[in-house]
Amino acid sequence: MMISNGSRSGSKRRTSSRYWGSRTEIRHSNFLGWLLDPNGSHGLGKLFLNRFLRDVAARSERKDLDEIRVEELNYDDVEIRREWRHIDLLVIFQDLVVCIENKVDSSDHSDQLNTYANVVGASFPKHHRVFVYLTPDGDRPNEEANVPYALCSYRDIIVFIDRVLSVHGASMNAAAFRYIKDYSVTLKRELTKTDELNQLAKQISKNHEELFRFILDHGTDVESDMLPIFRDKFKEWGYVPVSENKGYARFLTSALDAVIPRKGVGLPGKRVSPLRSTSMARRRRQSSKHSSHQVMKQSIGC
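Now predict its structure.
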């Protein structure tokens, strides 16, 4: 048994946050690509893509796309490409291509935007072309491009998602609904910091600024203060202390303490706990076993 201070954080966070990596661009691009695909397993058809393009049309300085044209597009014949020629997302219609540069935790560099515009222009010379720069807050790019990029934000994506779910949620597949809903929660909590918990934290911090500053300046080491309390309580319950440091304490049951040897194995002068000694011995046995298997595989030509 081990008591830990939880320094390996994240164990209680939502599965969705771990899956999307919260701020990992490629995972967000993959999810958005799925949402934008009218044939995606979400069952929403063109709803999200149509709403997204209407927003792009309203923000774009180019005349290649307007809200009337958005409604006239053939959504039955659209292709979504991800990470094509290093472009995050590419939406391809019969005579229109939309290039989306997705920036979550970084900004454009090395003339990226012009490079992508040139690649798209050379690959789709007869298509109308629209370019989108997507960031959490709709920020402007670091480098000005030769073609205008429509500035879109994840805040807008959240609005699209929540609106679609509120209107069409009852008729959606339950698994798809939960999946998309979790993604919206992740965006609010991790990317835009606009969920209720973040807002509450900001309000509490603002209302009690002096108190928090005092705690930071004079606060005690919680782990060090709490460890003796937990140690005494577990000893009271019959557990045998083995080793501890600032972050954790290890205990054995009385039965295990009678079986596991107390003498460790390690560098001279370095104390190794029984649990670690046992773990080290197990790893040595597994390593030896693995080597034997490798020799066997080589001998039979695997």
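The CA atoms of residues 133 and 151 lie 5 Å apart.
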